[in-house]
């Protein structure tokens, strides 16, 4: 075990179960650094000796587990796009952590970091769901702890649909005309030869009455209900 200084801050470095542990104490005191090193080693030993979990598994970096999980996910499901997106953020913010260090405070910190980045609460909730599911039994423990504190899921505001005005309707029709997506209704890609195109009052009324859950302006996705 050893402590060393980088600038004004003390770090510690030691090997545990064949892995190099090198972390900052975020302190300018050598005494505190030595105490932090000892505490860190005790924490690792406590997690390592958890008889319900594989020892080697618990001291692996989260990033390694994510890579393996995604490999299996791609074999089981046709599309892994969303899983890759969600776990990409998890890996970016928590990937360097060891499995044994992922606890409720880690998840809360992840939630707050993503909120500061401007991510939507619903997306963050899905990212956390992937994280905890991937961790297996330890993830279930963290899930239960967060649920007990009512911090498992961020509140999601349900947006109420708003009717399009004439300008928005015309803009949507223009973008749909340019799109090559087969999901865009044909009547939006060209004028309806019957004369009842989007400019017809009854057509506009039907559109406004629909509840559009999602419509990307570029016409890549079209989802509606009404």
What series of H and E elements makes up the topology? EEEHHHHHHHHHEE
Estimated helix fraction:
40-55%
DSSP E strands, number: 5
Q: Could you say which structural class the secondary elements and strand pairing correspond to?
A: alpha+beta
Portion in beta strands: 5-15%
Gross geometry: elongated
Strand order of the largest sheet: 1-2-3
What does the model show?
- This protein has 226 residues and is an alpha+beta fold.
- It folds into 3 domains: 2-49; 62-148; 166-225, no CATH class.
- The chain contains 9 helices and 5 strands.
- It has helices at 30-48, 55-58, 62-76, 81-94, 104-116, 121-135, 137-148, 166-178, 201-209, and strands at 2-6, 9-16, 19-27, 211-215, 222-225.
- The strands form 2 sheets. The protein has a 3-stranded antiparallel β-sheet with strand order 1-2-3, covered by helices on one side. Strands 4-5 form a two-stranded antiparallel sheet.
- Strand 4 and strand 5 (222-225) form a beta hairpin.
- Residues 188-226 have low confidence and may be disordered.
Question: Which short descriptors sum up this protein?
Answer:
two-stranded antiparallel ribbon, 5 strands, alpha+beta, 226 residues, 14% strand
Give the topology.
Blueprint (H helix, E strand, L loop, with lengths): L1 E5 L2 E8 L2 E9 L2 H19 L6 H4 L3 H15 L4 H14 L9 H13 L4 H15 L1 H12 L17 H13 L22 H9 L1 E5 L6 E4 L1
Antiparallel strand pairs: 1-2, 2-3, 4-5
Helix pairs in contact: 3-4, 4-5, 4-6, 5-6, 6-7
């Amino acid at each position: 075990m050893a402590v060393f200084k980088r600038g004004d801050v003390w770090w510690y470095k030691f090997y545990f179960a064949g892995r190099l542990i090198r972390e900052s104490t975020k302190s300018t005191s050598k005494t505190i650094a030595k105490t932090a090193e000892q505490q860190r080693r005790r924490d690792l030993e406590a997690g390592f000796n958890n008889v319900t979990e594989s020892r080697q598994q618990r001291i692996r970096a989260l990033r390694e587990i994510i890579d393996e999980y995604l490999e299996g996910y791609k074999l089981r499901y046709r599309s892994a796009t969303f899983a890759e997106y969600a776990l990409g953020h998890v890996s970016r913010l928590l990937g360097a952590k060891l499995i044994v260090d992922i606890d409720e405070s880690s998840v809360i910190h992840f939630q707050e970091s993503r909120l500061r980045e401007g991510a939507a609460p619903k997306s963050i909730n899905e990212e956390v769901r992937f994280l905890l599911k991937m961790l297996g039994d330890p993830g279930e423990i963290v899930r239960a702890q967060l649920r007990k504190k009512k911090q498992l899921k961020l509140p999601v505001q349900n947006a109420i649909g708003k009717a399009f005005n004439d300008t928005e309707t015309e803009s949507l029709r223009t973008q749909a005309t340019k799109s090559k997506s087969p999901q865009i209704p044909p009547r939006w890609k060209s004028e309806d030869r019957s004369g009842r195109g989007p400019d017809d009052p009854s057509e506009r009324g039907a559109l406004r009455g629909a509840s559009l859950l999602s419509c990307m302006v570029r016409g890549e996705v079209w989802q509606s209900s009404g």
